[in-house]
Amino acid sequence: xxxxxxxxxxxxxxxxxxxxxxxxxxxxxxxxxxxxxxxxxxxxxxxxxxxxxxxxxxxxxxxxxxxxxxxxxxxxxxxxxxxxxxxxxxxxxxxxxxxxxxxxxxxxxxxxxxxxxxxxxxxxxxxxxxxxxxxxxxx
Amino acid sequence: xxxxxxxxxxxxxxxxxxxxxxxxxxxxxxxxxxxxxxxxxxxxxxxxxxxxxxxxxxxxxxxxxxxxxxxxxxxxxxxxxxxxxxxxxxxxxxxxxxxxxxxxxxxxxxxxxxxxxxxxxxxxxxxxxxxxxxxxxxxxxxxxxxxxxxxxxxxxxxxxxxxxxxxxxxxxxxxxxxxxxxxxxxxxxxxxxxxxxxxxxxxxxxxxxxxxxxxxxxxxxxxxxxxxxxxxxxxxxxxxxxxxxxxxxxxxxxxxxxxxxxxxxxxxxxxxxxxxxxxxxxxxxxxxxx
Lengths: 139, 290
Known about the structure:
The structure holds 2 protein chains of 2 kinds. By secondary structure, chain A is of the alpha+beta class.
């Protein structure tokens, strides 16, 4: 079992023991299982998935770090992190469209910023949709 | 009797009105205070964890660490003998000594570094007003954000500070804010924001870094500064509302004391009036009988 916690500047989102965690890093997606070597990696905007007692759950992160410590301790320090039920799907879609529009315009100065925003909102939409589809099954 | 009973009644009425206003302000501040305190407390785990991460990184990246981390020798070359101070205060007063404590701290900072020229970034109207009185340059003035404070409110401030620092405009960047200790105690504080002091402690574990230690450090340093600014904002906001609530509670108690005193003198004036009238009547009766 892995002691997993995710913290943002605004709140401590989650502290739980889980079986596995899949995180998007700058070098690609990695899955963390028990007895992973100590590692510190930059997070990429995307979807973090973990499976614990309640099955597989996911949330959207916009960037930050993942720190894997000795003794099966995993800490994610994210800039922002949201669960599916917290995401307003319409607003996320709108933000994605805005980001795409800006990227299509020529001579965008902050291409990196906009592309990061686009990545972040794509992840938010994915997480939100997953949550909504599961919500409709259970009711 | 110096004051007529009519005058005293008028004063009781106006003190009661003020008491109602301070009572309302106390309730509003109490609600805001609870939110701000929760936010300040929620930011502390991140602070602990990111400091730990910085410690784990220290010593991993060699001498050429990062331009935002302490490098005294290189920086002295282009020194303009100027420092930057970020002063975090509130937009509104009526919060006891809250703003003046922060401003006094600023004056002490200026006194301690008398050889340096200071420029300012201010957050909050009270701070920018007093900096203007000191005849110092304000390079940026931000309003206080009262609702839904987030890390994105700290980013613009941090960005200006980082840019000016990397341009060698300033040797150091300080931030003056009010540390929230409890509802009754807040302490004005000065912290050096830039350059980041490298931590003394070395990491215990051997970590693998992805992509590499330098990249992780770059990523972390910027966030550390953003977060440091954010934390001063939430601490100051929690302090402001706590200080205002306590100040308003005191005003409230003072107003009810004052009302009691005024009621006493109103009664005394009324009784004196009755006694005088009785004396006049009996004197008139005596005169008529006589």
